[in-house]
Write a structure and sequence with these properties.
The protein is α/β, with parallel strands linked by helices and 457 residues long. The chain has helices at residues 3-10, 91-100, 119-129, 151-154, 179-186, 200-213, 219-222, 225-242, 254-261, 282-287, 300-311, 327-330, 347-356, 362-377, and strands at residues 16-19, 22-27, 32-37, 39-43, 46-51, 61-63, 68-71, 73-78, 103-108, 136-139, 141-142, 163-166, 193-196, 246-248, 267-271, 317-318, 393-403, 422-432, 435-439, 442-443. Helix 8 packs parallel to helix 9 (254-261) and helix 9 packs parallel to helix 11 (300-311).
C-alpha cells in the first residue's frame, strides 16, 4: 500500500475497529510475527491501521480485552467431497466447519467424483463454491496419466495452489504408480508440486497383512514407514534432478522426517495435528476405524520425532487433511473401511492446546498455519497481520477451556475422533476480509467466501 493509499483510507470512517487485544503483527524488518498490544482498523476488506491507538472513527468498534488476534488460519489440505460424494461432505458444510474452527481459507483437494483434472472441472468447482462457501477457498488440480501435457497450463489457473499428485492409492481414483509417468509430471511445470507420498507397489504387496489382521491396529503395519520413505526418496530425487519445488503432505514417520531434514532446499513438509496428538496402538484400540487414515497414525516414537521436526524447522506447514466419511462407511470391517476423518474444525483447538501445554509457541504455530502456506504457495495478501493485507483474522481465547464434542462438529459426518477431548485455547471469532462470519460458536454472516488469488509472477 502506498502512502497516498494510506492517506485516502485514513480520510474515511473505518468499517471495523478492534481494540484491547494482543495481536500477532508481522514485523517486516525482523521477518516474523510479534505479539503486540495494538489496535486494528479495517476498511474495505483490508487492514489499514495497526497502531497502539487509533483515533479514526469507526462504524463498529469491538473490545476484545483478554483475547488474542492471529493472522487468519489457512488450512492447506482439505477434502470437501463435492462434486459426486456430497453424502460425506460438500463445500457449504465443509467451509461452515472451517469458520467454526477459526479457519479463514482452505485449499481443497482434487479427488472428488469426477476428479478435478481439467480446466472445465476446475471451473465447475469454482461455480459450486460461489455464494455457498463460508470461508475463502482454492482448488488443487489432480495429476493423472491423461492430463500431463496440460499440467503446465493448469498450474497457472488463478485460483489453484497448484498440482496434486497421489503416489499411493488413497480415497478416490487419482493415482500415479508409474515411475515414467511420475517423471513426466515432475517435468510438466515449475510451481510447487504437492505429493501424497506412499509407494503403491509396496502397499499392494503388504495388503494381506491388513486383510489377515481384520483390525485397524494393523494399519501402520500394512502402510509402514518404508512405504513412505521409498516414495519420498523418489520424489526428492526427481525434484532435485529437475529443480522443481515439492510439498510432501501429511508426514507421519520418523525415518521420512529424518531424511527430509537433509533435503530442504526444494522440499517443504506438512504434518497433521493428529500425528502430534494421537499414537498407536492406543488410538486404534479406543477409536477403531475412526483413527484410520493414510498415511497412518504411528506409535509414540514417531510422534516424539515429529515434535522435534516441528521445533527444528523441518516441518513447514500443519494442515488438517480433513477427509470425512459417514459413520456407516467407517464402520465397515477393516480394511474395507475407508481411510480419513474430519479435521478442519479441530485443527486450531488441538494445536492451541499444545500451545497451552508449551509444546509449541503461539508464534511458531501461526508460522505453520498462516505465514508458511502464504509463502510456499505465493498467496496474495493473506497470512499476515500487516497494512494492506486482507483483513483475515482468527480471534482466540488462549485461556478458555472447552471440550470438543460430536455435537459441535458441522461436517456432514457429524463426528470427530477428538470427541470428549478437553482443550485449553478456543477460536472465539473468525473474520474474513473484514466480515465477522463466526462469533462464539455461531455463524454470524454466512456464505462470505471468495476464491483465493495467487501471485504467479
Amino acid at each position: 500500500m502506498t502512502s497516498n493509499d494510506e492517506e485516502l483510507f485514513m480520510a474515511h470512517t473505518l468499517d471495523l475497529l478492534l481494540k484491547n487485544a494482543n495481536v500477532l503483527v508481522f514485523d517486516r524488518e525482523k521477518n516474523t510475527s510479534i505479539l503486540q498490544k495494538v489496535e486494528i482498523g479495517i476498511l474495505k476488506n483490508k487492514l489499514v491501521e495497526i497502531k497502539t491507538h487509533i483515533s479514526t472513527p469507526a462504524a463498529e468498534t469491538l473490545n476484545l480485552d483478554g483475547l488474542t488476534i492471529l493472522p487468519g488460519v489457512i488450512d492447506s489440505q482439505v477434502h470437501f467431497r463435492e462434486p459426486g460424494l456430497t453424502h460425506k461432505e460438500d463445500i457449504e458444510s465443509g467451509t461452515r466447519a472451517a469458520i467454526l474452527g477459526g479457519v479463514t481459507s482452505v485449499f481443497e483437494m482434487p479427488n472428488t467424483n469426477p476428479s478435478t483434472t481439467t480446466e472445465k472441472l476446475y471451473e465447475q468447482k469454482l461455480k459450486l463454491a460461489q455464494n455457498r462457501a463460508h470461508c475463502d477457498y482454492a482448488f488443487f488440480i489432480g495429476a493423472s496419466g491423461d492430463n500431463i501435457e496440460y499440467l503446465s497450463e493448469l498450474e497457472k489457473l488463478p485460483h489453484t495452489p497448484g498440482i496434486k499428485l497421489f503416489l499411493g492409492a488413497s480415497f478416490g481414483s487419482l493415482l500415479i504408480d508409474s515411475d515414467e509417468v511420475f517423471e513426466k509430471v515432475m517435468q510438466s511445470g515449475k510451481n510447487r508440486l504437492t505429493i501424497h507420498s506412499e509407494d503403491e507397489a509396496r502397499l499392494r504387496n503388504r495388503k494381506t497383512l491388513a486383510i489377515e489382521a481384520q483390525h485397524p491396529r494393523a494399519h501402520p503395519i500394512w502402510r509402514d514407514e518404508e512405504s513412505a520413505i521409498i516414495a519420498t526418496r523418489k520424489s526428492v530425487a526427481l525434484s532435485e534432478k529437475y529443480q522443481r519445488p515439492i510439498h510432501i503432505l501429511h508426514v507421519s514417520s520418523s525415518k521420512e522426517m529424518e531424511f527430509l531434514k537433509k533435503h530442504k532446499k526444494l522440499t517443504s513438509v506438512e504434518t497433521l495435528p493428529q500425528f502430534l496428538t494421537l499414537s498407536a496402538p492406543d488410538c486404534y484400540e479406543r477409536l477403531g476405524t475412526l483413527a484410520q487414515q493414510n498415511p497412518p497414525i504411528r506409535d509414540i516414537r514417531h510422534l516424539e520425532y515429529l515434535w522435534k521436526a516441528v521445533q527444528d524447522g523441518t516441518v513447514d506447514v500443519i494442515g488438517s487433511d480433513h477427509a470425512p466419511h459417514t459413520l456407516e462407511e467407517k464402520n465397515k470391517p477393516y480394511p474395507e473401511s475407508p481411510s480419513g476423518f474430519p479435521g478442519v474444525q479441530t485443527l486450531l483447538p488441538i494445536m492451541l492446546n499444545h500451545v497451552h501445554q508449551k509444546k509449541i509457541s503461539l508464534e511458531k504455530l501461526s508460522e505453520l498455519v498462516s505465514e508458511n502456506p502464504r509463502r510456499l504457495f505465493n498467496i496474495s495478501n493473506k497470512g499476515r497481520i500487516m497494512i494492506g493485507y486482507d483483513a483475515d483474522l482468527t480471534v482466540v481465547d488462549l485461556k478458555k477451556t472447552n471440550e470438543i464434542s460430536n455435537k459441535w462438529i458441522a461436517s456432514k459426518c457429524a463426528y470427530t475422533p477428538f470427541d470428549g477431548y478437553k482443550v485449553t485455547g478456543w477460536p472465539i471469532m473468525t473474520i474474513i476480509r473484514g466480515q465477522i462470519v463466526m462469533r462464539e460458536d455461531q455463524v454470524i454472516k454466512p456464505h462470505q467466501g471468495a476464491a483465493i488469488s495467487f501471485d504467479r509472477n
